[in-house]
């Protein structure tokens, strides 16, 4: 059986890391697309030369021609500009919306059957715009944010409880921003919900509340520390988990920005919810019961995403 083909549109900090991870895991042949002259080809050649050392077989190609993504099984989109210190994700909207228009046209023309994972910020708006511009089925276009946000939450919880990250699960709903909703009732250590762990004296409500807040501002914390650019190792690792669930039909239940058609009382919007990802793309939306506080926070998140879409439509009247 021929190898799968993975197209990375945007070969910057996340794109290059995506390529390295996909090659190391032998997920398929890899095309790095970017408008930066030469850079994608340089990274492709460098990664190809790492192959003999690690023992991975993958054809790697750099390009600035959308024709080279033809027939891709998975397209992961990071094209655009990242935040600089002091910028909000929403500040990127005007620039990155135009980028999504070009990327959407490229995917529509050359990889209409791909499973598309959008990473570009502001994520909840960019994934919606990318779907509009590409015209792909809604279940084949998804945004990566919740896997990253829940990974940050899981890291902080594992640190607090001093347990293996393997046994920590976390639930984060809503938009990829300050309004995201970490749901502690559904977050566990080996199935023991966090509220029970607090009762068992493993932590305190105050410490967990501080961890929830640190998760919400997790992206900004790294932007401030790096000074130039934003996180890229954990975002790339998160998107690869989603791509793997599609390519191997793993049917993982993962928090992703997915298109809702009435679930959670939301219609025709992309927002972070738990979904099953398999060979059919987004196969199912898990509609969990939320307590009043989580419901209110989720609604705040939905309202914030709606405002971003209003801004998108104000820029491009065709949306
Ligand atoms: O959880 C999440 N979704 C976020 C997303 C986590 C971290 C970063 N987040 C966003 O991903 C970030 O705010 C950016 O919007 C994207 C990509 O972040 P990255 O750190 O990879 O940015 P880089 O290194 O600047 O890479 C972007 C590349 C760069 O090489 C540009 O030349 C290229 O995008 N670019 C384009 N490629 C194709 N087509 C167009 N028009 C284009 N414009 C820029």
UniProtKB/TrEMBL annotation:
Binding site residues for NAD(+): 10-15, 34, 96, 119-121
Molecular function in Gene Ontology: L-lactate dehydrogenase (NAD+) activity; L-malate dehydrogenase (NAD+) activity
GO BP, sorted A to Z: lactate metabolic process; tricarboxylic acid cycle
Active site positions, chain numbering: 176
Record's signal peptide: 1-22
Catalytic EC class: oxidoreductase
Role description: Catalyzes the reversible oxidation of malate to oxaloacetate.
HAMAP family reported in the protein's UniProt record: Malate_dehydrog_3
Family: Belongs to the LDH/MDH superfamily. MDH type 3 family.
Protein name (Swiss-Prot/TrEMBL): Malate dehydrogenase
Organism: Croceibacterium soli
């Amino acid at each position: 059986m021929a190898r799968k083909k993975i197209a990375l549109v945007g070969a910057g900090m996340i794109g290059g890391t995506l390529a390295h991870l996909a090659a190391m895991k032998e997920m398929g042949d890899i095309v790095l697309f970017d408008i930066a002259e030469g850079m994608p080809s340089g990274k492709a050649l460098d990664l190809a030369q790492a192959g003999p050392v690690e023992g991975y077989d993958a054809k790697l190609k750099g390009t600035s021609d959308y024709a080279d993504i033809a027939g891709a099984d998975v397209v992961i989109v990071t094209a655009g500009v990242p935040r600089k210190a002091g910028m909000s994700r929403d500040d990127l909207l005007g620039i990155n919306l135009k980028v999504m228009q070009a990327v959407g046209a490229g995917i529509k023309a050359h990889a209409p059957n791909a499973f598309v994972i959008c990473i570009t910020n502001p994520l909840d708006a960019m994934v919606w715009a990318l779907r509009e511009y590409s015209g792909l089925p809604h279940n084949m276009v998804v945004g990566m944010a919740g896997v990253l946000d829940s990974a940050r939450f899981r890291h902080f919880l594992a640190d607090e409880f001093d347990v293996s990250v393997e046994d920590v699960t976390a639930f984060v709903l809503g938009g990829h921003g300050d309004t995201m909703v970490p749901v502690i009732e559904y977050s566990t250590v080996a199935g023991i919900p966090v509220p029970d762990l607090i009762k068992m004296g493993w932590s305190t409500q105050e410490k967990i509340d501080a961890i929830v807040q640190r998760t919400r501002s997790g992206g900004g914390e790294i932007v401030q520390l790096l000074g130039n650019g934003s996180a890229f190792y954990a975002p790339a690792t998160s998107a690869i988990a989603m791509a793997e669930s599609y390519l191997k039909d793993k049917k993982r239940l993962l928090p992703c920005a997915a298109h809702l058609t009435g679930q959670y009382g939301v219609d025709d919007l992309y927002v972070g919810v738990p979904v099953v990802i398999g060979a059919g793309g987004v196969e199912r939306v898990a509609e969990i019961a939320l307590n009043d506080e989580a419901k209110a926070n989720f609604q705040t998140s939905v309202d914030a995403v709606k405002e971003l879409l209003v801004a998108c439509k104000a820029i491009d009247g065709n949306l």
